[in-house]
Amino acid sequence: MKLKHISLFLLSFIISLPILSQEAKERNQENINLNKFRQLYQEFSTPNMFRTASGAPGPAYYQQQADYKMEIELDDENKRIYGFETITYTNNSPDNLEYLWVQLDQNVRKKDSPSLKIDGGGASPYYLPSGFTKEFLTDPFDGGFNIESVIDENKNPLKHIINQTMMRVDLPSVLKSGEKFSFSIKWWYNIQDHVNQDGRSGYETFEKDGNRVYIIAQFFPRMAVYNEVEGWQNYQFWGDGEFALPFGNYDVKITVPSDHILDATGELQNRKNVFTKDMIKRFNKAKKTYDKPVMIVTQAEAEEAEKGFSKDKKTWHFIANNVRDFAFATSRKFIWDMMAVKIGNKDVMAVSMYPKEGNPLWEDYSTVVVAETLKTYSDYTFDYPYHKAISVHAKQIGMEYPMICFNFGRPNIDGSYSDDVKFGMIGVIIHEIGHNWFPMIVNSDERQWAWMDEGINTYVQYITEQKLGKDFPEIIYPLENFPSDRGPAEMITQYMSVDQKFLAPIMSNPENVYSLGPNAYGKPATALNILRETIMGKELFDHAFKVYSKRWMFKHPTPEDFFRTMEDASAVDLDWFWRGWFYSTDYVDIGIKEVNQFYVSSEPGAEMKKFMKERGISRDRLRPLVYLENFENDTDNIRENNPLENSKLLDNYIKENFTESEISNIQVPKYFYEIIFDKPGGLVMPIIVDYEYEDGSVERVTYPAQVWRKNDKEVKKLITSNKKIISINLDPDLETADIDTSNNSWPKKQEDSEFDKFKAKVKG
After folding, report:
1. How far is CA 707 from CA 243, 426, 569, 680, 718, in A?
2. pLDDT by residue (tens digit) across 714-740?
3. How many other CB atoms are there within 10 angstroms of residue 5's CB atom?
4. Would you say 301 and 261 are in contact if contact means Cβ atoms under 8 Å apart?
């Protein structure tokens, strides 16, 4: 009997569990702090000795060092590159290491690479001929590293295993904290045609003269990052997430055909051996020329070089200290120009390399754009620390490496070009040169956080584009009102309006987002621009941004280091902003829900009487009150909607309660308006509103974002004035990225908003 009783009790308890769980869930939901202004303690890591709560490196901060000595040979005839490299790895961490991880990013191009199989989509309704040929009529390109040997200093083989784009090198003994280990890798791979086979580097063939332009990067096995955040950053390279690399010193010798022109990361060590006497004279002139580029190799000389294919070889020797990577470009087709730029107290060389197919566009614009970019970025962050910055012309590519970048923008065959081509080329040069700061010096983890280099850099790119031709008249050219395609708030609204299932937060791995361009470039750039222009103000933002940039020069910042520094250096609490813009896919939509007009009365109106009745309050219990009554709700007193007439009540009230001397200092409002703002969108933002009065004057009022802190749905504001309001307009300068402006006006405008038009277009 007792057993049966227990069983029945358990059964009834089990049956009741779902109901209790739901109730508990609802209670817990009510008790969870969901306020948009709560601190980011749950999202952020706990500060420690490595990274402080202020966003600065801590007293125990460390980073590893990887030094390279390389001998490289480019086989132009067979389109291959061969290399032998010695890596000296310094373990500055407090940990003992049993193995090292080396990145083999070229392995993404192996014909059996898993990266070729990770995307779905099925059949396309149409294909470009080149795409159809590539997809169905040809075998996959057989790229990827061929590792011939991995040996230690004594030429003993080292045990190693390759896992896709990562190679683990097992150490013969534990590498203790503070120790160094040197080992060598011999390798080669087939270089891909980047025009037809895509990729961030490779070659382009010019059919008319049979020559190729090589832009070579990710070309050698590179050490992965080891730190206290990730341990080994050995996340596979699938194609979108770019690179995480330690700093080090490079000593690189590159052998190419003797008629090639070559430049690379680092300082050229054997200029006399690879330059002609005329080139040396021109180079020395360029080092003292600040107003225009000097030709080192002219177009006529490049065209002459195109005619021959030398079998002889020439070796170019470069040394680069404290860089995170190395890249180079080489061709017999290159035209080469340079000019000096004064950055701080030193000279930097702005450099361009391009085939004749890039002219006249490249000769006119490339190097001067490099020069202006160096100046503007230095002004907003820190002085450019390297001795040169190179812009190389490459079809379809925009890609960056220390001191050198590859940029698209090609005129028509007859030399003509549209404004779109010109501005596109200028924009990409600014962007890729700008990457010298982010992430080549402020060395964020691109594999994990694409926005930390792309988004931050796109923001400074926008600043630079808007200053072109204005701040540097010594190299002036007519580029007023540069048509930036990222940065301004209104340019991100279409992306933020799309179906949520196709969106991911900015704080997402780049491999896991649908549209990497707007997600990693456009949205964070817009967020930072809004932060500067609308939330913080230029002075506070610029100071904090410069503090972040200088704090993390030649170091490895995380997103939290950026977020914390921006607050630490400005005294602006921005947790609400980071959470909304970076950790969610919420959008901005703030509207005018309702506008009510009130008058002053000595007697309670309908609403007040209803309130008193509901609460059981008698008039005798109340001390003398001044009542504000809504015209539309006044059913008892039946007053005309005439503020001037009703102002007599206010005048009488003032005469009865104030002395004449006090009255002379009182500004008596004639109008009382209650404006109810609502927020259909999830993002909290400041309410920026223009109140237009019947005399034609306009008053702009900005309510800070914290106005939403106690009510995330709607905010009521009472406006008093001696002038009649005839219209109200929200976000008049389109600076908050509001996706729907149809609810931004009172009286509501009849014409369709841009958002309405967009919705209709999508639906159609």
Report:
1. 41, 41, 23, 15, 13
2. 999 999 888 999 999 999 999 999 999
3. 9
4. no
pLDDT per residue as tens digits for the range 432-479: 999 999 999 999 999 999 999 999 999 999 999 998 866 555 444 555
Q: Above 50 in pLDDT, residue 110?
A: yes
Backbone phi, then psi, for 101, in 5-degree steps? Answer: -110, 130
Hunting for tokens 């332009």 — which residue is that? 213
- Which amino acid type is present at position 570? S
φ, ψ dihedrals at 82, nearest 5°: -115, 145
Residue 538: which H helix or E strand, with range?
A: helix 538-551
CA distances in angstroms from 401 to 555, 609, 618, listed in the order given: 16, 73, 78
End-to-end CA distance of the chain: 71
pLDDT in tens, 311-343: 999 999 999 999 999 999 999 999 999 999 999
Q: What is the pLDDT of residues 380-431, one digit of tens each?
A: 999 999 999 999 999 999 999 999 999 999 999 999 999 999 999 999 999 9
Residue among 525, 284, 315, 318 nearest 402 (CA)? 318
Residue 453, C-beta contacts closer than 8 angstroms, at least 6 positions apart: 242, 435, 438, 439, 444, 446
Residue type, 567: E
Q: Name the β-bridge partners of 717.
A: 675
Per DSSP, 518 falls in state: I
Question: In the predicted model, what is the mean pLDDT of the chain?
Answer: 88
Q: Which residue bears the tokens 């104030």?
A: 658
C-alpha to C-alpha distance for 291 and 342, rounded to whole angstroms: 11
The helix/strand/coil state of 166 is strand
C-alpha to C-alpha distance for 10 and 7, rounded to whole angstroms: 5
**8 A C-beta contact, residue 411 and residue 360:** yes
pTM: 0.89
Which CATH number is correct for 65-448, 2.60.370.10, 3.40.50.1000, 3.30.460.80, 2.60.40.1730? 2.60.40.1730
Give the fold, CATH level 3, of 449-586.
Neutral Protease; domain 2 (1.10.390)
Q: What's the pLDDT at 558?
A: 98
Rounded distance between C-alpha atoms, residue 509 and residue 447, angstroms: 7
590/687 Cα distance (integer angstroms):
8
Calpha distance 382→460 (Å, rounded): 13
Q: Which residue has the tokens 């050490």?
A: 223
Between 575 and 134, the more confident residue is 575
Can you give the residue ranges of every domain in the chain?
Answer: 65-448, 449-586, 588-764
Counting every residue written for the chain, the total comes to: 764
What DSSP designation does 429 have? H
**How many CB atoms within 10 Å of residue 267?**
15
Kind plus residue range of the DSSP H or E element containing 748: none
Determine what percent of the chain falls in helix, strand and coil, rounding each to the nearest 5: 35, 25, 40
